[in-house]
Design brief:
The complex is a heterodimer of chains A (411) and B (425). Chain A is α+β, with helices and mostly antiparallel strands. Chain A has helices spanning 10-17, 24-33, 47-62, 112-125, 149-168, 176-183, 187-193, 200-204, 219-269, 274-339, 349-410; strands at 7-8, 70-81, 86-96, 105-111. The chains are: A alpha+beta (411), B mainly alpha (425). Chain A: Residues 68-189 form the PX domain.
Chain lengths: 411, 425
Amino acid sequence: MPHPLAASSSEEAASELTPSPDLLLPRSFADKDLSLPNGTPVDTSSPASSSSLLNRLQLDDDLDGETRDLFVTVDDPKKHICTMETYITYRVTTKTTRAEFDLPEYSVRRRYQDFDWLRNKLEESQPTHLIPPLPEKFVMKGVVDRFSEEFVETRRKALDKFLKRIADHPVLSFNEHFNVFLTAKDLNVYKKQGMALLSKMGESVKYVTGAYKLRSRPLEFAAIGDYLDTFVLKLGTIDRIAQRIIKEELEYLLELREYGPVYSTWGGLEMELAEPLEGVSACIGNCCTALEELSDDMTEDFLPVLREYILYSESMKNVLKKRDQVQAEYEAKLEAVALKKEDRPKVPADVEKCQDRVECFNADLKADMERWQNNKRQDFRQLLMGMADKNIQYYEKEKNYKYLPSTLLIM
Amino acid sequence: MERPEAEPLGASHSCQTGEAEPGTGPAEEEPGGAAAGTMMEDCLSKKIEITVSEAEKRTGRNAMNMQETYTAYLIETRAVESQTEGQCSPPDSLWRRYSEFELLRNYLLVNYPHIVVPPLPEKRAEFVWHKLSADNMDPDFVERRRIGLENFLIRVASHPIICQDKIFYSFLTQADSRLKALNATFRVKNPDKRFTELKHYSDELQSVISHLLRVRARVADRLYGVYKVHGNYGRVFSEWSAIEKEMGDGLQSAGHHMDVYAGSIDDILEEEEHYADQLKEYLFYAEALRAVCRKHELMQYDLEIAAQDLASKKQQCEELATGTLRTFSLKGMTSKLFGQETPEQREGKIKVLEEQIHEGEEQLKSKNVESREFVKSAWTDIERFKEQKNHDLKEALISYAVMQISMCKKGIQVWTNAKECFSKM
């Protein structure tokens, strides 16, 4: 079985993206074949799917008795090399019992661009809701290897989380664009058609360049705003601390790598002491391995989640701003009406519409904020416990290695 | 740049004042200080300025035709007078490596056994054991060694007796100082193999332990950094908990554990210092071992010289007695050229020689006995030392491992506590 990151031939890539009539069915057949009996992961041989199964189970716990009827997973990254560019696609698998979907199962391939498109569409069409963040779009080519296993895996996890958060959202999960994203064979065709399925709300909420000034922000939104400001700062600090720890650990590792062999050298000079000295040397070598694993884990699992929450908070702040704008517009219009004494008995339709908008927005946002707070709590509990776990594992490994010289020396 | 007159590190040498008048040396000095004062005026250090000004990395092939890297040091000498006259004549200079300084010092030790010969800076193994352990190339070490070597030369040059040695002077001024050849002549021909091996071992032991101690110190420094940075989590968790409702308590108490973690490194490292001290002791013990080997070498050298001396006297005697010239000697030639001696003169000479030979044989006998006894008792003590060393170092290594295990346990404890706090978030 080819390595997930092995380049597939360009023909295969081409067929995946723009299925021509001739090349059709092998692809869709394969997709249908992947629809395994309900409940089992799509590809049991891939380790990614078992972890996504675990992810699913964890989110299950969170849902307080809600029955879940939509499951989404991102896995199986593959590299595509074409004449113009090289990029990665991910397999997006959906299982659902919802009527909005024609089939109970889908499997499609998507690249980062597609996720970005989805997010933009969601923001446009559901402006009163908080859209989960995507992992960072731009990566400096010289600095990070976009095709390294670690980078791709980190990104995959973030994309998986992105889709899961949408799937769990009572409103966003029913969005048309989301549906198409999960089901369409060829997303590009759909994109070109430019289906404008904007909800009424979406259409009317196009605008917002601070045209209106807000009089007073309701207390709860002001509180959230303040909270987010501080929260983002603290996360930034934690990010810096974590990075610093990783740096110090790597420098420690560097010295350890010189330290171990000196014991070996000494052992070479000795007779009776040779074995224990060699034992110490080997033990230090093992500790180096354990330490490297710890720093890698922190880099790959801890830092990206932190950063994602910073992005999430930023996008939350943007939504709050939008809400402020909608309220400001309403207030301004109301004021304008109040001045015209003739229309006073009847509130004009458009002012009413504004009022509706404000109330909808407030309700949607409030619900989303609560959901966000809960998820945040779960996520950080998991994240920090994970960090503690990794450190515990590191010390366990170190402790076990250290027994070696001890037993030798006691002879 | 005007350099102050050559002065040994940290010395307040009466030699340096330059104003001491003959006979008015400091009262505290031992008798003969006055005379010494006069002699000091004539020290080499007064006449020439000696510096070891540069160090350079070199590669070459050693005695076993293996590629090696070493450092060469530039010795510069400049006549003092030329400086005070306002002229700045270029210095004479030549390059020497550490092992050549060692040859010089060995030469001085052997030829001036009653003199306290100045020491050389730290010895480090010339050949590289392991790619990562090229300490003798570390720039700080090279710089310190350069200063130490300069100091050594100035000390020798300031010593009233050995500063006059011709070999020393040629070491400073002639590229080929015949030291290597001399080394062959004053090298011990038949040392006890065990002592040679022991000397080699103690050199290497010193080298490896000092390397170990240095790296361990760096490791400790880095580990300190890792632990201490975690303390920052304590503060930020505390600040964060202030804006949270349900998460607050968990965060706050976890932060406390991070502080505990950060603080725990101080005790850990202090305990490790004891381990380092145990290693240091054996570092210094290696020096003591070397001293014993040196003593054997000197005794053996003494013995060999005495035997050689005796043998040549016996030969001379024989030649005189038989009237044949077996080996070329200047004396023989001159007597051939300028006439033979009278039989009476010859008889006289033979008698003197016979007395000397008799004396020499007695001396050689007692020297042999002395040497054998030395070897026997030295070796007994060395065996005892080896046992002690193995026992002590084994224990040190065990206690080091135990320390490390306890450090791991502490780590597990703290993080488990923190994890529990996080779980309550």
